[in-house]
Design a protein that fits this description.
Structural class: mainly beta
Number of helices: 6
Number of strands: 38
Radius of gyration: 28 Å
Largest sheet: 7 strands, antiparallel
Shape: globular
Helix content: 10-25%
């Protein structure tokens, strides 16, 4: 028989071997973010060409930790993994789904793979991976949308999920380039666009705008990078920051005021140059391009917009937040341009009240680009985009057509979050030719509204915009469409002799689900009036119509343990989910570990017996 001391030694050895061999991938995870304001949850991640994403979650606890995804931020329907390290060094890890506010159930199909689990005196670090699309209906797909993340922890290894600290966060996972993948100039300068000692109002929502000159340089420079600069202790107050380029002929006001309040001049300048929102980091443009400053055609002033959310009405807060620009005399091959596309905001855009879903459309027809540009328009290489709606927005996508045929869905976010507006890079650069069409579709929900919502600058109004970041720059600043409102009104049974009467007639409609569907159908069928504008404020009109959108086939699902993984470095330990004795955690449960118990008792005895036979 094996002695008790021998068993204890083998148990210790086996546990030590597991912990020592369970290291993170030798490929560094390029992207990272704190998931909460207190910086107790830190997430690192990366993804590969095999549609596998690897996460490393570090949480300030020595108890259980959890991480996963929800559909719209609510707990029911959530998809989480729960893991931890027991006091004796053994690990547990399993894939679960949240049934309701009181019940969490272990998945029959375990689709997360544990790579390592470590713990020190203050924190637990869990590294794991899964496919974008698993075959478990309880798992939330990982897509190019804004994902709703959920993380949680407890003070010890007694899992009481619903009494743990639970945090939720919107985050965009599908990043493709990190700054380390790009080239940094050897000489650069820094310039801040920020508010100066602005007193944050005791109000839940404030939009503060001011006008600031861009750096004065004697020769041409390129802005190649930007990042947010947030005043310490105001991190939870600043929701997003946008920078708009102003035309050099614009008459701009001074001071700071409400962007969309009683002084309309503070909403001047509508071409977004850069944008940041909560959760966003710094952004560096591709090596081929930068924002040109210092030449006569370049903007000299910008409008800075800072959105504050002081929900707790905290008094006496002073803010100096803004955007930091990095610019260099080391010129890049091309000047960057921004093309504003989507639905012409005012006065045609409208949303019926009280509907679950309503789609709006804005068309960009580029057939007159070369005529308006004055010279041939070179191919536009689109490398990034920024999507924009207001509070009713639930999804935005942009579809590219050429010669009447759909080429691709160029950009989309089917889980749009107003509080996470950021510049996002493309997986690969897309070529946009003069003559192409670009359709922007925005999906809205107005269940909380009892009257019509119209397009406009206020957050209580709506917008449907997509800003395309491209190179080389041309003279076209915007290309936006709107439906023939006279036709829409007539399809809704209202008499309208012109566009003005059409808009007035929209107010007379008895809105319900049926009339909302009729309005959506009419807006899609109506001819589109397309307005093209240059950076010099020259405007021409074009026409077009909304083409059909071909939906992509869903990606095939994958089982993580179907095949032996080959992408990870040799020697990397893999840990499958620990099986628990109960399939449900209802309010309070402690995870038993029969499998680990068998391994730690049965395997050492077998090993001792085997050694004695030698």
């Amino acid at each position: 028989m094996m002695s008790h001391p021998c068993m204890k030694s083998l148990l210790f050895l086996l546990s030590t071997l597991c912990l020592c061999s369970s290291h993170s991938s030798s490929h560094p995870l390029r992207f990272s973010a704190y998931l909460d304001a207190m910086q107790q949850f830190h997430l690192r991640w990366d993804h590969d060409s095999k549609e596998m994403v690897t996460f490393e979650l570090q949480v300030q606890t020595t108890g259980w930790v959890a991480f996963g995804f929800t559909t719209h931020g609510e707990l029911p329907g959530g998809d989480v993994v729960i893991g931890g390290v027991l006091p004796d060094g053994n690990m547990y890890f399993s894939d679960w789904h949240i049934v309701d506010e009181k019940t969490i159930v272990e998945d029959e199909s375990q689709d997360y793979e544990l790579l390592s689990m470590t713990q020190d005196e203050t924190s637990t670090t869990m590294t794991f991976r899964r496919y974008f699309q698993t075959c478990d209906p309880h798992d939330q797909p990982i897509t190019g949308d804004t994902l709703r993340l959920i993380s949680a922890f407890g003070p010890d290894d007694t899992i009481d999920f619903f009494k743990g600290k639970i945090i939720k966060k919107s985050l965009y996972i599908m990043l493709y380039l990190h700054e380390d993948d790009l080239s940094s100039p050897s000489v650069y300068h820094v310039y801040d666009l920020k508010l100066d000692d602005f007193p944050i109002p005791e109000d839940d929502t404030t939009y503060a705008c001011t006008f600031i000159p861009l750096p004065r340089v004697k020769t041409k420079h390129h802005i190649y990078k930007f990042e947010a600069v947030i005043t310490p202790r105001n991190e939870t107050m600043v929701h997003h920051i946008l920078v708009y380029a102003c035309g050099n002929a614009s008459m701009l006001p001074t001071g700071v005021s409400d962007c969309y309040g009683a002084e309309p001049e503070f909403s001047l300048c509508s071409q977004i140059v850069v944008g940041w929102a909560v959760g966003g980091g710094s952004y560096m443009f591709p090596d081929e391009t930068g924002i040109s400053i210092g030449t006569p055609r370049d903007p000299q002033w910008i409008r800075l917009e800072v959105h504050y959310s002081n929900f707790d009405l905290i008094p006496d807060l002073i803010d100096n937040s803004g955007i930091r620009l990095y610019y260099t005399p080391e010129l890049r091959p091309y000047d960057m341009g921004v093309l504003q596309t989507g639905l012409f905001t005012f006065p045609i855009h409208f949303l019926p009240p009280g509907v679950e879903t309503f789609n709006s459309y804005g068309l960009c027809n580029t057939s007159r680009f070369e005529e308006l540009n004055g010279i041939p328009v070179p191919d536009m290489h689109v490398f990034g985009y920024l999507l924009h709606t207001h509070l009713a927005g639930r999804g935005v996508r942009g579809i590219q057509y050429r010669d009447g045929k759909q080429l691709r869905v160029l950009c989309e976010d089917n889980k749009y979050d107003f509080n996470l507006q950021e510049t996002r890079g493309m997986k690969e650069i897309v070529t946009f030719k003069a003559g192409d069409e670009f359709l922007v579709e925005c999906r809205y929900q107005t269940l909380d509204r009892t009257s019509l919502t119209f397009g406009g600058p206020s957050t209580l109004n709506e917008m449907c915009l997509t800003f395309l970041f491209y190179y080389p720059r041309n003279n076209i600043s915007s290309c936006m469409g709107y439906p023939n409102i006279q036709y829409v009104a007539q399809e809704l049974g209202q008499a309208a002799a012109d566009a003005m009467e059409g808009m007035m007639a929209i107010n007379l409609v008895d809105w319900n689900n049926d009339t909302a569907k009729q309005a959506e159908k009419a807006c899609k069928e109506a001819d589109q009036i397309v307005i093209l504008k240059t950076i010099d404020e020259v405007v021409v009109n074009e026409t077009g119509f909304i083409r059909d959108i071909i939906e992509a086939e869903p990606a095939p699902c994958k089982h993580i343990f179907d095949n032996e993984p080959t992408a990870e470095p040799e020697g990397q330990a893999k840990f499958q989910a620990a099986v628990t004795s109960s399939s449900t955690l209802n309010m309070k449960a402690t995870l038993p570990f029969p499998v680990l118990f068998f391994v730690h008792l049965g395997f050492p005895c077998f090993l001792t017996f085997f050694l004695r036979m030698l």
